[in-house]
Amino acid sequence: MKKFDVIVVGAGPAGSTAARHCAINNLSTLLLEKEKLPRFKPCGGGVTLAALNELDFEIPKNIIERECSGLKAGFNDHQNQVDFSSTVAYMVKRDKFDQKLADMAAEAGAELHDSEVCRDITCSSENITVQTDKNEYQGNIVIGADGFFSKVLKKIRGGFDKEEIRYCIITDIPLPEHEVTERIGDFAELQFGFVDFGYAWMFPKRDCISAGIGGMLSHAKVLKHRFKEMLEMWNLRTDLKTKGCFLPVSRFKHDICADRIMLTGDAAGFVDSFSGEGIRFAIISGKIAAETSLACHRKGSFKKSSLKYYQEKCFETFGSRLKQSNKLTDNLFKYPGVLLGEAIDNDDFLMRYLKTLTGELDLTDVIRPLMKMIPRLFLKKVISIFRMFK
User: Fold this and answer.
1) Range of 235's domain?
2) What pLDDT does 379 receive?
3) What is the H or E stretch that residue 379 is in?
4) Residue 113 vs residue 76, higher pLDDT
5) What's the whole-number mean pLDDT along residues 117-128?
6) Which long-range contacts (CB under 8 A, 24 or more apart) does 313-318 make?
7) 82 within some domain
8) How much of the chain is in helix, strand and coil states, percent to nearest 5?
9) N or C: which end of the chain has fewer CB within 10 A?
């Protein structure tokens, strides 16, 4: 049985980042991926500037489909757009992007096995064993980076709570590059009101538009119908095959580590509940998991008490951001008729939000002005209702 210091399950942004940094620090590392790489990943493909700044190497230009510098946003009759004048997010296709990150991990010294499925994990006081459909491996630590349907997650908790789950439908609509430019240019577009506690989006790529809609799991049945309505509104094809995916949104009620185990990225629920951004937090958590792995090997302890540093560091580094996003989501979507339209009409609000995607501002810089608007807007609404009965 082959032995490693660290076994990483899942070669997405979190897993490949963790594996690369473990290997750089001379930890023998196995990176397992159940799919054959490169593999399709249902995702809007927006990588924010803040996410890209977490990487210590440049992404090749052929992987970047388009650079977005502005935002179009709408809610019913409220339609607005702001131009940031510099790049806010890079549009990529996840098969190429994830392949690059996995290649970087392998180049750093990680042993990459794709088309190999993790079947079971067994932990003892001496080691942790990963059984796949092809082999069996022993390690000191397992890093779970295997997404929503994580096998590693099940060793810590049963799965995600219903309130933590979002569902999305996505498709790529092929178009000539000039037509993508004519339709949307370098703007990402978000349309609210199609579904409660969610939105529809249109992201420009080089030769296609990535369109999707997402919301609460409880609304999954209506999403397909709403998605068709959205595509018709945008005058886009409605006959193309769609893909569904689940997004886990942590409410920070559960541990993300146990003896010899850490959860990263989607497996830990590190997804922004408002924007759906997950790549930034996947990369950061992957780096922190590698840092923790090195510290545990130096200490010679792999118990949960030693791995608690990982959980604390994640919450300290970006936990506040994700909690603030939960707050923003709860407030905007709880009273959409009161807040959403006003927020979208407000250029300053949209610009502030874009600055959170570049890392220039924190979400508190968006939420505070929004909270100050609430009393005035509720009063305005009450007066409007009162006048109806006069």
Assistant:
1) 162-248
2) 61
3) helix 364-388
4) 113
5) 96
6) 313/288, 314/256, 314/268, 314/270, 314/284, 314/285, 314/288, 315/252, 317/284, 317/288, 318/270, 318/280, 318/281, 318/284, 318/285
7) no
8) 40, 25, 30
9) C
C-beta of residue 271 within 8 angstroms of C-beta of residue 281: yes
pLDDT digits (tens, 9 = 90+) for 264-275: 999 999 999 999
Can you give the C-alpha Rg of the chain in angstroms?
22
Q: Report which residue type is found at 97.
A: F
Q: Does pTM surpass 0.85?
A: yes
How many domains is the chain built from? 3
349 three-class SS = helix
Separation CA 334–CA 340 (nearest Å) = 10
- Contact, 285 vs 14, CB < 8 A? yes
Alpha carbon distance 11, 99 (integer Å): 8
DSSP state string for 149-166: T-TTGGGTSS---GGGEE
CATH of the domain at 212: 3.30.9.10
Total Cβ atoms within 10 A of residue 112: 20
Phi, psi of 54 (to 5 degrees): -80, -15
| Among candidate residues 206, 222, 248, the one where a domain is terminated | 248
- Average pLDDT value for residue range 287-291: 99
Whether 117 maps to a domain, the answer reads: yes
Residue spans of beta strands (DSSP E) within 217-333 = 243-248, 257-258, 261-263
- Per-residue pLDDT band for 298 (boundaries 50, 70, 90) equals very high
Q: Indicate whether 312 and 356 sit together in one domain.
A: no
Check whether residue 189 and residue 222 sit in a common domain: yes
Distances (CA, A) of 312 to 19, 224, 254, 308: 20, 39, 12, 6
Asked if residue 383 has pLDDT above 80, the reply is: no
Give me the half-sphere count of Cα atoms (radius 13 Å) on the Cβ side of residue 354.
Answer: 26
The dihedral built from the CA positions of residue 176, 182, 183 and 185, taken in this order, carries a sign that is: positive
| Residues forming beta bridges with residue 200, ordered by sequence position | 191, 213
> By C-alpha distance, which of 380, 286, 238 is closest to 17?
286
The β-bridge relationship of strands 29-32 and 111-113 is parallel
Same domain (yes/no): 260, 244 = no
Cα(186)–Cα(194) distance, rounded to whole angstroms? Answer: 23
